[in-house]
DNA sequence: ATGTTAACAGACCGGTCGGTCAAGTCAAGC
DNA sequence: GCTTGACTTGACCGACCGGTCTGTTAACAT
């Protein structure tokens, strides 16, 4: 069934290219024609794999969420490191990622999910929900980490669910600010303060 | 010189309409034709006042920044309230603003500056710089508040400059998350934790 | 060999994009 | 009353948008 190709799979090639372009620019700014050219694919082939641009974006989100979960998120969160140090590790990872991207492209791309969320969540409820789900997953990683920190006594008891959300919000906000300044160092400067965020238990 | 008109000034009408549309949707998604229709203005008139769509956006940013500075920011920050309570006041103001917008339009618009920053700061350095300046101003409001909190003894000494940036980042992040969930209450839930953010003085 | 079908090619579509322009309106200054 | 210049009108432009359509190719099973 699966066609064996010497080079990368066409669908994958489209996906990879589209991800990078959406990430580095924006959803609306990148045209299908442009994506096809970059992926060396014809329009007809594109629409063979993706019903619409929107569906491509959804696929990109899923794809990126996967890579993310198995990539640096897993790395940052599933360590044998003490819980709170994982947060520092994650901030560091975010910094180096954005830094290297900025060095390559000359500008900080920021967070693909945050970018897309602000750009299209007012116009497309399906995409908004999908992005929301990605954030929920990320928040869960934070929550687990916080739970462990509390049970290990490294942290006084708190509302781990809400605090996890707060930390995710802070991370996104820091990346937003860093992108606006086009300076990854902002992440290094502000990032570590993520550990000071606290939302007490409501009782 | 100035032409007196019974109804609102044409330029102002364009500005107001464009602001709302950019805020509620996105820069790329709103066309000039659409803006003209909503403002009951002809294309030619539009280009009489604004050299380009980009220049309109810049004007919108300035306009909004002004309104913001003289509106709820001034209200939230220049009170006779104790410094730390101003932060709560500001969170509250943000919540009610987003809430009423969501009730009217059915969706949370989020922060115009944050939205624009993520959408175009990778493509237009001038706009990026302008948005950055707006953020700098906002950060200054936070810093002054923190300075007062420290001198009044309400807060232990800390790096007010960096902490102010952190708070701004957190605010933007919270709004981003709330917009993605399309639920203003997220602001109420996460917002108050802004007071827990701390970046110590480097010495 | 032949029929089937996924994969790919590329011309083509109506519509919309941001932006231009020539023509005209009208009130103020001389 | 004539000129000036800000303002308005609406037709028009080429480029590009997302998406469709008709074919062609090549790897399969039969």
Explain what this protein looks like in three dimensions.
Two copies of one chain form a homodimer. By secondary structure, chain A is mainly α. Chain A has a domain at 57-196: Orthogonal Bundle (Tetracycline Repressor, domain 2). Helices cover 69% and strands 0% of the residues of chain A. Chain A has helices at 10-24, 32-38, 43-49, 53-77, 83-105, 112-120, 125-151, 160-181, 185-190. The longest helix of chain A is centred in the last third of the chain and has 27 residues, at 125-151. Chain A starts with 9 loop residues before the first helix and ends in a 13-residue tail after the last helix. Residues 1-6 of chain A have low confidence and may be disordered. At the A-B interface, helix 6, helix 7, helix 8 and helix 9 of A face helix 6, helix 7, helix 8 and helix 9 of B. Chain A binds a DNA duplex (30 and 30 nucleotides) through residues 1, 3, 10, 31-33, 41-45, 47-49, 52-53.
How do the helices and strands line up, and which of them pair or pack?
2 copies of one chain form a homodimer.
Chain A: H1 10-24, H2 32-38, H3 43-49, H4 53-77, H5 83-105, H6 112-120, H7 125-151, H8 160-181, H9 185-190
Helix pairs in contact in A: 1-4, 4-5, 4-7, 5-7, 6-7, 7-8
The structure holds a DNA duplex (30 and 30 nucleotides).
Short structural description:
The structure is a homodimer of 203-residue chains. The longest helix of chain A is centred in the C-terminal third of the chain and has 27 residues, at 125-151.
